[in-house]
């Protein structure tokens, strides 16, 4: 298999409708990543429906969403700043290194075990988002969250983002809200930037191991750029309440989808 062979999808028929589906899913995924994360849940099912194997769909989706994540990160660049006094470049370096490790793990190991764990990670994210500020206040009244904890969490997020990436933006929002007591709207910039860094690390590995089907990737990539830019523009105008409602809806739907996928038989 070669990364540049456009005929990889055989016996899938490549026609304008498949290109349109890929581009549309990319636009939706890019917008979702810019607003609350979870763009993979628009792109991955679309690619699987178009006939790509699950691991190839995951790799293709990752590369396709990378420019959209970069576009959104650029749109939020003026809002980017340290998290709990940890500089952005430290978090980015950590994310990239562990993102490489996670993507190599996907190449070298089967996904069945991790598929079973994913729904529980998403359920945790949903619970943290649901209780929101009350959970953060309760935790901070009893525990002092230091830099080592946040750095360890970012490393794990890097591994997750490189290995699968589905819902990593949602989980980042939940964990940073819990550990650093940061509200969802204030996390747009840093979350989007870390998502772009993790996607970049994974893309290096997936392209290197020829896991990307370009006939689907390129139209999805173009759609994700447009969607990421539009999503960032919309996100700047949303109220904190709107962001919270959107994040809860996406997190809840994502959790249900992955429980069904893992345990629905």
SSE blueprint and pairings:
Layout (H helix, E strand, L loop, with lengths): L15 H20 L4 H10 L4 H22 L12 H21 L3 H29 L6 H17 L4 H13 L7 H21 L5 H24 L2 H24 L2
Helices and strands, in order, run as: HHHHHHHHHH
Mean pLDDT: 80
**Uncertain runs:** 1-5
Percentage of residues assigned to helices: over 70%
Most strands sheet? none
Spatial gap, N to C terminus: 31 Å
Number of domains: 1
Q: What gross morphology would you assign?
A: globular
Beta-strand content bin: under 5%
Q: Please give the count of helices.
A: 10
Radius of gyration: 17 Å
Structural class of the helices, strands and pairings?
mainly alpha
**Total strand count, please?**
0
In words, what does this structure look like?
Helix 4 (88-108) packs parallel to helix 8, helix 5 runs parallel beside helix 7 and helix 6 (147-163) packs antiparallel against helix 7. The protein is 76% helix and 0% strand. Residues 1-5 have low confidence and may be disordered. With 265 residues, the chain is an all-alpha fold. It starts with 15 loop residues before the first helix and ends with a helix.
């Amino acid at each position: 298999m070669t990364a540049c062979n456009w005929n990889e999808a055989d016996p899938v028929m490549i026609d304008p409708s498949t290109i349109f589906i890929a581009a549309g899913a990319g636009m939706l995924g890019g917008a979702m990543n810019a607003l609350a994360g979870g763009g993979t849940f628009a792109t991955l099912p679309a690619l699987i429906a178009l006939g790509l194997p699950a691991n190839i769909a995951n790799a293709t989706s990752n590369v396709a969403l990378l420019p959209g994540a970069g576009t959104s990160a650029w749109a939020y660049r003026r809002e980017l700043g340290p998290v709990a006094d940890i500089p952005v470049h430290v978090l980015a370096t950590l994310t990239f290194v562990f993102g490489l490790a996670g993507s190599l793990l996907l190449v070298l190991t089967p996904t069945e075990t991790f598929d079973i764990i994913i729904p529980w990670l998403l359920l945790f994210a949903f619970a943290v988002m649901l209780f929101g500020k009350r959970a953060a206040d309760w935790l901070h009244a009893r525990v002092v969250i230091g830099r080592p904890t946040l750095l360890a969490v970012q490393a794990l997020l890097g591994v997750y983002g490189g290995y699968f990436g589905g819902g990593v933006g949602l989980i980042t929002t939940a964990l940073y809200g819990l550990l650093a007591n940061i509200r969802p709207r204030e996390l747009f910039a840093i979350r989007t930037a870390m998502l772009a860094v993790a996607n970049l690390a994974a893309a290096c590995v997936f392209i290197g191991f020829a896991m990307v089907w370009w006939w689907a990737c390129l139209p999805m990539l173009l759609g994700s750029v447009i969607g990421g830019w539009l999503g960032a523009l919309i996100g700047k105008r949303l109220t904190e309440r709107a962001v919270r409602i959107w994040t809860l809806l996406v997190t809840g739907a994502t959790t249900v989808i992955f429980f069904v996928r893992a345990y629905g038989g």
